[in-house]
Amino acid sequence: MVVDRKPLTGKSTIQEWTMSPVGGPVIGQFLAAIGQDESVLDQVKNLPLETLITVSQGQLTQENVDDLVRQANGGVLPEPEVAAPAAARFAG
Q1: What gap in Å lies between CA 64 and CA 80, rounded to an integer?
Q2: Residue 85 neighbours by CB under 8 Å, 6+ apart
């Protein structure tokens, strides 16, 4: 049985990344490469991955985020989700 899973993106939270069987190892390898471990993520686990670009003081770039997203999604950078217009929720 194949289970469809929501792709991990820069908008996925750190917790979603670390809890994912695919994303967890990807994040772990990145942290190891920069001399860190997952404990540095404890205080930011509810933030989207892309937020770390700002708070990491240059240790994480947009290019890094794109690379992590590709690694977690079989080499593909998923299309960004487009939110439905608010009026569409009330149509019909």
Answers
A1: 17
A2: none
- In degrees, rounded to 5, the angle at the alpha carbon of residue 33 between the alpha carbons of residues 29 and 36 is 90
Q: What is the pLDDT of residues 33-58, one digit of tens each?
A: 989 988 989 999 999 999 999 988 88
Q: Please list the residues that pair with 48 across neighbouring strands.
A: 13
pLDDT at position 1: 44
Look at the block and give the residue holding tokens 């069987």: 21
Question: How many CB atoms neighbour CB 22 within 10 A?
Answer: 15
Nearest-angstrom CA–CA distance, 2 and 78: 19
**CB contact at 8 A, 29 and 36:** no
Q: Is the Cβ–Cβ distance between 38 and 18 less than 8 Å?
A: yes
> Which residues make beta-bridge pairs with 13?
48
Q: What is the DSSP-derived secondary structure letter of residue 38?
A: G
